[in-house]
Amino acid sequence: MAKHGWDVIGVDFVGKAINAAKQKAKAANADVEFFQGDVTQLDFLNPPFDLILDIGCFHSLPIDRRSAYVNGARRLLTSGGVFLCYAFKPEARMSGLAPDEMIDLFKDGFVNTKVEHGEGMPSTWYWFERRFHSS
Ligand SMILES: C[S@@+](CC[C@H](N)C(=O)[O-])C[C@H]1O[C@@H](n2cnc3c(N)ncnc32)[C@H](O)[C@@H]1O
After folding, report:
1. Minimal CA–CA distance to 130: which of 85, 89, 69, 73?
2. Are 64 and 89 in contact (CB under 8 A)?
3. Contact, 54 vs 97, CB < 8 A?
4. pTM for this structure?
5. Is 14 in the pocket of ligand 1 (CB under 6 A)?
6. Cβ(56) – ligand 1 distance below 6 Å
7. How many CB atoms lie within 10 A of CB 7?
8. How far is the CA of 12 from the centre of ligand 1 (A)?
9. Atom of ligand 1 at shortest distance to CA of 21?
């Protein structure tokens, strides 16, 4: 994404994952800032963000941390910003989410604009647009 002109920040709470991502960014000559941190405690980041991309993280959060993540996404995304998420369904993993459940979690301050079923593992792609006003 950095190579396509985005200003990118990457977050993971596992140092090994951050190091691997740093190496990939370096190999691609991409300028990316990385933080080792918990995605349910993003107080160290300041809005506005145009996009939050989550591929396979949200579905692995403990259920009682999901709302903290949603609150963080709501705080960080600018109006019209997008939360794009790939998540397993319950059939794929015990902690996966059914589309109805996912859409319900992001009902306040977001509009679900698109849902696409993933290929391979039972999974779903979600597009949520941040809306500061409901109308
Ligand atoms: C399936 S992997 C992501 C793979 C990556 N998106 C990719 O496409 O290569 C899920 C990642 O989420 C991270 N993760 C899970 N819970 C987290 C949390 N609460 N805070 C930060 N990272 C977390 C894990 O450490 C792991 O690296």
Report:
1. 73
2. no
3. no
4. 0.96
5. yes
6. yes
7. 11
8. 6
9. 9
Ligand 1 and 12: CB distance under 6 A: yes
Residue 86 CA: nearest ligand 1 atom is 6
DSSP state of 13: S
Smallest CA-to-CA distance from 31 within 12, 9, 49 is with 9
Residue 135's pLDDT band, with cuts at 50, 70 and 90, is: low
Domains observed in the chain: 1-37 (no CATH), 38-135 (3.40.50.150)
| pLDDT of amino acid 134 | 64
Q: What are the DSSP calls for 69-134, one per residue? A: HHHHHHHHEEEEEEEEEEEE-TTT-TT---HHHHHHHT-SSEEEEEEEEPSSSSEEEEEEEE-SS-
- SS3 category, 46: coil
Q: Give residue 13 CA to ligand 1 midpoint distance, Å.
A: 8
